[in-house]
Amino acid sequence: MPNSGFSFEIASNPERSSAGRAGTITTPHGEIQTPAFIPVGTKATVKSVAPEAMAELGAQALLANAYHLYLQPGADIVDEAGGLGSFMNWPGPTFTDSGGFQVMSLGAGFKKVLAMETDTVQSDDVIAENKTRLAHVDDDGVTFKSHLDGTKHRFSPEFSMQVQHQLGADIMFAFDELTTLMNTRDYQVMSLERTRLWAIRCIAEHQKLTAERSHRPYQALFGVIQGAQYEDLRRKAASDLGAMEFDGYGVGGALDKNDLGTIVGWVTEELPINRPRHLLGIGEPEDLFVGVEAGIDTFDCVSASRVARNAAVYNNQGRFNITNARFRRSYEPLVADCQCYTCTHYTQAYLHHLVHAKELLASTLLTIHNEYFIVGLVAKMRQTLIDGTFQEFKTEFLGEYKRLGL
């Protein structure tokens, strides 16, 4: 497919396709130096933080959610505004997910453990307690009820592409079916075939819309690799989609994080070496090292901003909670030696006060620090890959890092 304005180059050339590498993704709205962490701005905003502040803290790109923007304000409004970047006053590259995670998670009521129901396979035994199934899948797409007002909607591969083209992100993802680790292997096999067929339909619709919307910058399309914890299914999915006309790939689905490196390694060994790989929904420091080492180029996750809203703070020793009484009269920076805006301007005592006073500024300042920390950590990984010192950096960092104080 035509890809004017989009490319990927590897700066540190690994001998194996699954080895960590540094590279550059070029988009119509700028470059992304990889590996890179992509902060999540679900509704075209990183909660409580202005786009200008995200740029200042080092974010190279932002990811928004197609499902949420489709429901509110509407993809057509974002399109009329000139696309996602113009709408949210973000000049750099943007990502959108397909909406599949949010649509399908309604089916089970879990945040990360997902299941759906079809006419032939019942998965109701994994519905979250006290939840009602709001989404139903068939081979053509998914029918669901809005979490905002209960109205009925339907996403198909073609419709997801139409919504994402209107949103106008530089990188978007194919519509896929998510499953849960509690689903049977037979269901995983059936779901994987459905996702493969949906991927073909996404490519066809993407090519059609790209030709029709030639007045807009080119949007790259990434396929999504599923397969749960099964090696043969993960490898098959990566091989099948790797042979298709995708610009890059996302690794998604339910998985046991204890096996993250192994599962990602299966996938990256099968994928084309010259296309970027994105790990969906992963953002904790330990997991980022695992992903980079296995050959992942970009990551997204809401964790940095979400835990900030609960007063949790990242530092090199782990995570601590600023609500702790010991910070009430501490006039030191939030994190010593950190150069983010928050740490260079505000004290632990002040941030402790803001949180206890339930002031909105607390979320802003803590999110700025956490995003700075995670974005900067992955940037350091990139530099050590170039320098050839990644393993030493990983050993040193993880030897000190422990999630304490939560």
Which class do the helix and strand fractions yield? alpha/beta
How can the largest sheet be summarized? 8 strands, parallel
Side by side, the strands of the main sheet go 4-14-13-12-11-10-6-5
Could you tell me the CATH topology label of the largest domain.
TIM Barrel
Q: How helical, in percent, are the residues?
A: 25-40%
Residue windows where pLDDT falls under 50 for at least 5 positions: 109-125
Overall pLDDT metric? 91
CATH superfamily of the largest domain: Queuine tRNA-ribosyltransferase-like
Assess the beta-strand content as a share of residues: 15-25%
User: Could you tell me how far the N terminus lies from the C terminus, measured between alpha carbons in angstroms?
Assistant: 48 Å
Q: What's the overall geometry?
A: globular
Q: What is the level 1 CATH name of the largest domain?
A: Alpha Beta
Count of the domains: 2
Total number of beta strands: 16
Query: Count of DSSP helices?
Result: 15
Tell me the radius of gyration: 21 Å
Describe this entry's structure for a reader.
This protein is an alpha/beta fold. It has two domains: 7-301, Queuine tRNA-ribosyltransferase-like (TIM Barrel, Alpha-Beta Barrel); 322-399, no CATH class. The chain is built from 15 helices and 16 strands. The strands form four sheets. An eight-stranded parallel beta sheet has the order 4-14-13-12-11-10-6-5. Helix 6 packs across helix 7, helix 8 (231-242) runs parallel beside helix 9 and helix 10 (285-293) runs parallel beside helix 14 (360-387). The longest helix is centred in the middle third of the chain and has 28 residues, at 185-212. The radius of gyration is 21 Å and the shape is globular. 50% of the residues are buried.
